Structures are given as C-alpha cells and as structure tokens.
Amino acid sequence: MKRVCVTGAGGYIASWVVKLLLSKGYMVHGTVRDPCDEKKNGHLKKLEDAEERLQLFKADLLDYEDLCAAFAGCNGVLHIASPVPGRHVPNPQVELLDPAILGTQNVLNACLKTKVEKVVVVSSGSAVLLNPEWPANQEMDESCWTDIEYAKSIEQWYAVSKTIAEIEALEYAKRDDLTVITVCPALVIGPMLQSTINSTSLLLLSYMKAIRTDNSERPLVDVRDLSEAILLVFENPESKGRYICSACSYRTREFVAKMKSIFTEKSGRALLNSKKLLDLGWNYRPLEESIVDTVKNFEEAGLLEKGKPFPSTLRF
Ligand SMILES: NC(=O)c1ccc[n+]([C@@H]2O[C@H](COP(=O)([O-])OP(=O)(O)OC[C@H]3O[C@@H](n4cnc5c(N)ncnc54)[C@H](OP(=O)(O)O)[C@@H]3O)[C@@H](O)[C@H]2O)c1
Known about the structure:
Blueprint: E1 3-6, H1 12-23, E2 27-32, H2 38-45, H3 50-53, E3 54-58, H4 64-71, E4 76-79, H5 92-113, E5 118-122, H6 148-153, H7 157-175, E6 179-185, E7 187-189, H8 199-208, E8 217-222, H9 223-235, E9 242-245, E10 248-251, H10 252-261, H11 275-279, H12 287-300
Parallel strand pairs: 1-2, 1-4, 2-3, 4-5, 5-6, 6-9, 7-8
Antiparallel strand pairs: 8-10
Helix pairs in contact: 1-9, 4-5, 5-7
The protein binds NADP nicotinamide-adenine-dinucleotide phosphate.
Function: Bifunctional enzyme involved in flavonoid metabolism.
Protein name: Dihydroflavonol 4-reductase
GO biological process, one term: flavonoid biosynthetic process
C-alpha cells in the first residue's frame, strides 16, 4: 500500500488532499505544528478512515529532524505547508521567506535522506503572475515566472517567497536524485473542512460582504479540483516540471455579480493557462458549484447570515 506524507495537513488545501488520499486507500502521514491543537487539527481525526490510516506528526518546516521522522517509510511527499498571510506582514524574512524557502529546502533534504521517490511542491499562481514583461492579453503558461526583483519592489513578499521556493525546488530536482513536480494554483475557493478560517477564504468572504470592493483580476480554482490535480501529478509517471492549476479568471466585481445571480453557464476567461494539466487528464467543476458549496459552507460555519436569500448577504 502506498504511504504518502502531506505537510501542513491541517490547512485548507492540505485537509482536502488528506481526505482524498484516505478515500483512495493511501496510508497517510500528516505534519502539523501541534497535533494536540484540536481547534486547528481536530477535523482531520474525524475524516473517514483516519483512525486506521492517518498518522499525525509534529513538525515545523524549519525542523529538519522532525520532517525526516514524518517522511520515514513514505514513497511520496506532498509539500503543501507554507505561510499564507492575510494582510501586511511586518517581518517578511521571518514570517514568510524563511518558512517558505528554507522550509522547502528542509523538506527536499529530508526527502533525499528518507529515500522518498517523488515530491509534489505546491507553489502558487503568484509565482507566475507578477511578470511585467509578459505580453498583455496573452495567457500565462508554465514558461511565465514572477519577476522576483519586481515583486520585491512592490513588496509582494508572499509572491517572492513562493517564486524563490519553487525555483529552488525545480533546481534541486536537476541536481539530486529526486523527482520534484510543482503545482501553481490560482486563488483557491470552495468549502473548508477545517474550523478556523484560512486567509483566502477570508478574502473571498470580504468580497461577499462587500468589505473589499477592488476590481482585481483573479484566476480561480476549486479546492477539490486542486486536490485532484495534486494527486494526478503525483500518481502519473508522465508528469514533469511545473503545472498551472486554474479553472477560469474573473474581475472581482464581475465575480461578485456572478455570485448574485448564481449563473449556470460555464464561462470566464483564462488568464492562467492549465492546458498542460488538462492534457494530463485533469478536469474542473463549473464555478457555479464552487460558489454554491462555498456559500453553504460559510453559512454553516456562521460566517454568512443563514436563512436569508443569498444575494441579500451581498452589497454591490
Ligand atoms: N489558498 C490559496 O488560494 C492558495 C493559492 C495558491 C497557492 N496556495 C498554497 O497552498 C498551500 C496551502 O495554503 P492554504 O490556502 O491551504 O493555507 P492554510 O490553510 O493557511 O495552510 C497553510 C499551512 O501551512 C502551515 N505552516 C505555515 N508555516 C509553517 C511552518 N513554519 N511550519 C510548519 N507548517 C507551517 C500551517 O500550519 P499551522 O496551521 O500550524 O499554521 C498550515 O497548515 C500554501 O503553500 C500556499 O502558498 C494557496
């Protein structure tokens, strides 16, 4: 039976990946910073088959020995942990860059040490998008990289952290005997399994409640489709290099207007191009389904007012 370790198992995306792995019969190791923190990680223990096939390990990304202990006996590692800040970060070096960059190096070193065969590193669309040289109106594919100096100049430290970590992960694979695949997801939407709200769900909620009203272009993907993509590139022996994972793009005002009408047609532009992943066999659900399920989840969690018709929770 295959044994896989997921880093940051209690997080928004990682929780769905753990659930998917369990449903496919995997033995799953999950790293968390505090296995006793029921508020953050209690939901993992309630997943179907978790009692028999999920084992949690205490590990910070900056602790190489703890990572080695978690990876021992695993064929694969899905490296998902990385800080995702909600707002201004006072000390980007300590809060973002070190855990993302040194953390990824530690993960890869620990994989080599414990003879893991394949690693999937979850990067970000923000390692693709901040490229002022890219021709306007041309979809960005895997050859497009965020310009690190440009990202630093506009203090986009999250993008800097993800871009450097991803470049180094792919370089590592060229040097050492380890297969490394990276996945660059768009902004992730869809229901949460965890009980504490993550930064990007909070961002979505702030658009739903009209707390934020900017009109940024946002490529989107559903968390369940992303989980399938992560497992697809892990399992498929043909997967190579970098994969963009994005369903469609919307300007946020347009997206909020769409939410109001709960549209039915499959639409949206493509800012990030996922052809490489689609060719590998990935597919994604209509955005309508993501919106309906997210709103239901936010209502159940008490984050949106229940019982009122959905558009009344929005001001636009
Ligand atoms: N959400 C999105 O829209 C989006 C889009 C593109 C890429 N991504 C990437 O997807 C991954 C997961 O993001 P998410 O949205 O699921 O965020 P999340 O719920 O905040 O999960 C982040 C996870 O990283 C862990 N972590 C942070 N710093 C750590 C450290 N020093 N040591 C160990 N664990 C650490 C957190 O652990 P604690 O619970 O202990 O804090 C948490 O489990 C990240 O790599 C992110 O860059 C997310």
